[in-house]
Amino acid sequence: MRVLAAMSGGVDSAVAAARMVAAGHDVTGVHFALSRNPQSYRTGARGCCSIEDSHDARRAADRLGIPFYVWDLSEEFADEVIDDFVSEYAAGRTPNPCLRCNEKIKFVAVLRRGIALGFDLVATGHYARLVEGAEGLELRRAVDQAKDQSYVLGMLDAEQLRHCAFPLGDSLKPDVRAEAEQLGLRLAQKPDSHDICFIPDGDTAGFLERRLGAQPGEIVDEAGAVLGEHAGTHRFTVGQRRGLRVGTPAADGRPRYVLSISPVDRRVVVGPRESLDIGVIDAIRPTWTQQQPEGPWEGFVQVRAHGEPLAAEVVTGDEGDETLRVRLRTPATGIAPGQGIVLYDGDRVVGSATIDRTTAATAGADA
C-alpha cells in the first residue's frame, strides 16, 4: 500500500513511519507546517510545529530512506483551529483544540489531499488501535493506558478510519523509545509535546486577551450578589478554583469554584464545589465510528483527554439527529460546554460529540 506517514518531528510518529516501512509499504513522510510564523526551537516540552521539529522529521525520514515533504496547512489551521478556539472562549465555552485539529486538519484535510494524490492510508503516531470487528473496523483504546489517545481520535467516522493506521496502538511508550534508539533515530529521547501547540508559553489568558481585548465584568455568587470583578470571561472555565480573586470569603469559609460563565453580560458565577455536580449532559454534532447505536444504551463516556471513564446511559435520537443526551450514573464535576465527550463500549470508541449544556445532578433524574 502507498502510505502517507505524518511526521511531527517526535519519536512516536518517527517509529510509526519506521514500522510501516518494515511492513513493506511504500511510505512517504510528510510534516505539517501549522504556524504562519513558526519559532525556531521548542520550549522544552511546550509547543510543536517549530522549525526544529521539521528538521527532526526530515532527519528521521532520511534515516528511514523515505521521501519527505512539508505541507503548509497554516491557513487551514488558523481558520479551523485557532479562530474556533478564540470564538468558543468568547462564547463562554471551553474548547479542546486537539480534537478540532485532529478532526479538521490532521485527518480531514490530510486525508483529502493524500487520497487525491493516490495514497491508501495515513499513518500517525497516535496511541490507539484499529481492530477488525463483527461490524467492521473498530477504534479501540491503546494497550498503554497511560498514553491512550483514543479520546482525541473519537471524532473520526467509519470512512475516515478506513484510511488510517495507528502502528503504535499495541506498544508501550518505553518500548517505542527503545526501538527508536535501535533504529538510530536521534530524537529517541525527545520530550513529548503537551499543552496547546499554538500557545507555547502556556499563557492562554494572555493569548486570548490579545485577540479579544480586555472585557471586564462581575464575579457573582449563585444569588447574584457581586463578589468582585474580572478582566474577561475568557480567563475562566467551569470548575476553576484558582485565580478568582474574590475579596469576600464564603460564609462557611470553603473555597469557591466557577459554576457558569455568561459572556453576554460578562458575569462569572461562583459557588461551592457541590454545585458543580452534573447529572445530565446534552451534546451536539455527534460523530459515529460505526453505525449509530439504536435507542438508549449503557456504556462509558470520557470528557477529558486523560479523564476517568464515567458510567452512563446514552440516549440517541433518530438517525441523522444532531443531538444526544447522556445520563451519568454517578455525578461528575467541572464539565464545561464546548468540551468533547467521547462514548465508549468497554475499550471500543463508539463516537463523540460536543457538550452543549449540562444539568445539575439534583435535577438529572427528571431532565
TrEMBL record:
Keyword Ribosomal protein: no
Keywords: ATP-binding, Cytoplasm, Disulfide bond, Nucleotide-binding, RNA-binding, Transferase, tRNA processing, tRNA-binding
Residue ranges occupied by any tRNA-specific 2-thiouridylase MnmA-like C-terminal domain in the UniProt entry: 283-355
Official protein name in the record: tRNA-specific 2-thiouridylase MnmA
Similarity annotation: Belongs to the MnmA/TRMU family.
Limits of the tRNA-specific 2-thiouridylase MnmA-like central domain: 207-271
Purpose of the protein: Catalyzes the 2-thiolation of uridine at the wobble position (U34) of tRNA, leading to the formation of s(2)U34.
Domain of life (superkingdom): Bacteria
UniProt keyword Oxidoreductase, yes or no: no
Active-site residues, record numbering mapped to chain: 101, 197
Stretches the record annotates as Interaction with tRNA: 147-149
GO molecular function: tRNA-uridine 2-sulfurtransferase activity
Enzyme Commission code: 2.8.1.13
Catalytic reaction annotation: S-sulfanyl-L-cysteinyl-[protein] + uridine(34) in tRNA + AH2 + ATP = 2-thiouridine(34) in tRNA + L-cysteinyl-[protein] + A + AMP + diphosphate + H(+)
Matches recorded under InterPro entries: MnmA-like, MnmA-like_C, MnmA-like_central, MnmA-like_central_sf, Rossmann-like_a/b/a_fold
Compartments, as annotated in UniProt: Cytoplasm
Site positions (Interaction with tRNA): 126, 339
Chain sites annotated for binding ATP: 6-13, 32, 125
